[in-house]
Design brief:
Layout (H helix, E strand, L loop, with lengths): L1 H30 L2 H8 L1 H4 L14 H10 L7 E6 L7 E8 L6 H4 E9 L6 E6 L4 H11 L4 H26 L6 H8 L7 H15 L1 H15 L1 H12 L9 E7 L7 H12 L5 E5 L7 E9 L2 E11 L4 E7 L5 H7 L1 H6 L5 H44 L1
Antiparallel strand pairs: 1-2, 1-6, 2-3, 3-4, 5-9, 6-7, 7-8, 8-9
Helix pairs in contact: 1-6, 1-7, 1-15, 7-9, 7-10, 9-15, 10-11, 11-13
Protein name: PepSY domain-containing protein
Keywords: Membrane, Transmembrane, Transmembrane helix
InterPro entries: PepSY-ass_TM
């Protein structure tokens, strides 16, 4: 009786969310390698072709920001800068504005532009309309099904939550009646000599078993993106396992060297000088009236969870605090690593390959599940038809 109820729940939850799970899994497998694929697909954007005549240091941020802003329309304002200290890389200036209540991807983004600039010459290499860029479309399909945040996000969020229940109910259905003989072997391995219907059924069970653990990781880390309160709860829970560390806020601010005329130029120069091994830095530009400026220093370009945050004060042109990911409590560190865990970047190329394959496994589950459902439906109809024939003959 228990397994009958679980089977009914598993079936109907899968039927309701199967299409969404398929899309999320397929787009997730593609997006796993988006950092590597972008560099391969768009070398003219991300790489500087000729570095022979470049100076040793990049131009001031304000100069580059002026060049980037000049390449856009007047109403398109740059809000973020992603820079790469490597001598052969361009810097990326983002201008983005969204309408949270709009329906559809093309209405959700009022505009989204990326300006790629040679930081040593100030030359704009290319302006990308990120609204139609392939990997951005893949990401938005993954996040919102291209329906816009207000409409697509809840569907994705609750489908992810239901996917957790599907995986957990699946392990109950998978559990062998006897842990020996043919039934046990069929639970872990495929017999290709059986008929197609049996093979499809076994494929669903076996792939479901092997993708269970990573599938749950995908789903739970996805829930952290989908439901902010859920993320706050698990961060707070894991923080209880460790006593708070000493604050990194400095008792006395460090004055910035006045090398450049503008505060933001000196702030970035300080970051580049004191973090020479950083692979990436990110700046969220604030309003000119604000006195604070923050720079995120990433020690690995393809990992967002290993960082130092530098906090500056414009009024006295000083560095006031440094927040390192190494000093975070367990919960905060887990929250910071959520993106790296979700995308498979936590352990480099090896975990990315595992994540990509696991995503493809998860994408196959709705397909094999639907086939099982359709085969059983046809079987029931055939039995019903045969029963009526026998009744009236």
């Amino acid at each position: 009786m228990f397994k009958t109820v679980i089977l009914w729940l598993h079936k109907w939850l899968g039927i309701i969310t199967g299409f969404v799970v398929f899309i999320l899994s397929l787009t997730g497998s593609i997006y796993t390698f988006q950092d590597e694929l972008k560099l391969w697909a768009y070398p003219e954007k991300y790489f500087i072709s000729d570095t022979t005549n470049h100076s040793k240091t990049p131009l001031p941020l304000s100069t580059l920001l002026y060049s980037a802003q000049k390449s856009l329309k007047k109403n398109q304002k740059i809000t973020r800068v992603d820079l790469y200290p490597s001598k052969n890389r361009t810097w990326v200036f983002r201008a983005i504005k969204t309408d949270e209540k709009a329906f559809g991807h093309w209405n959700y983004y009022r505009y989204y532009k990326r300006v790629f600039i040679n930081p040593y010459t100030g030359q704009v290499q290319q302006v990308e309309n990120s609204k139609t860029e392939f990997f951005q479309l893949v990401l938005q399909l993954h996040l919102n099904l291209l329906l816009g945040k207000q409409y697509g996000h809840p569907i994705v969020a609750w489908s992810t939550a239901i996917f957790v229940l599907i995986l957990l109910s699946g392990i109950v259905l998978w559990w062998p009646k006897k842990w020996k003989g043919k039934n046990l072997k069929r639970s872990f391995w495929l017999d290709t000599k059986v008929k197609w219907k049996r093979l499809n059924h076994d494929l669903h069970n076996v792939i479901g078993f092997y993708s269970l653990f990573i599938g749950l990781i995908f789903a739970i880390t996805g829930l952290a993106f989908a439901f902010p309160d859920f993320k706050k709860t698990y961060i707070a829970t894991f923080n209880l396992l460790q006593s708070p560390t000493a604050s990194s806020t400095r008792s006395s601010p460090i004055p910035l060297p006045a090398v450049e005329k503008k505060f933001q130029d000196n702030a970035l120069r300080y970051a580049l000088t004191n973090y020479p091994d950083a692979e990436m830095m990110s700046i969220r530009l604030k309003k000119e009236t604000e006195t604070a400026m923050d720079i995120q220093v990433r020690h690995h370009e393809k990992r967002s969870g290993v960082f130092d945050w530098l906090y500056y004060n414009k009024e006295d042109s000083s560095l006031t605090a440094v927040k390192s990911s190494n000093e975070l409590q367990y919960g905060d560190k887990l929250g910071a690593l959520n993106y790296d865990i979700h995308t498979g970047g936590i352990g480099g190329l090896t975990t990315k390959i595992i994540a990509c394959l696991a995503s493809l496994f998860c994408a196959s589950l709705p397909i094999t599940g639907y086939i099982i459902w359709m085969n059983k439906s046809k079987k029931k109809k055939k039995k019903g038809y045969q029963h009526n024939v026998n009744k009236y003959c």
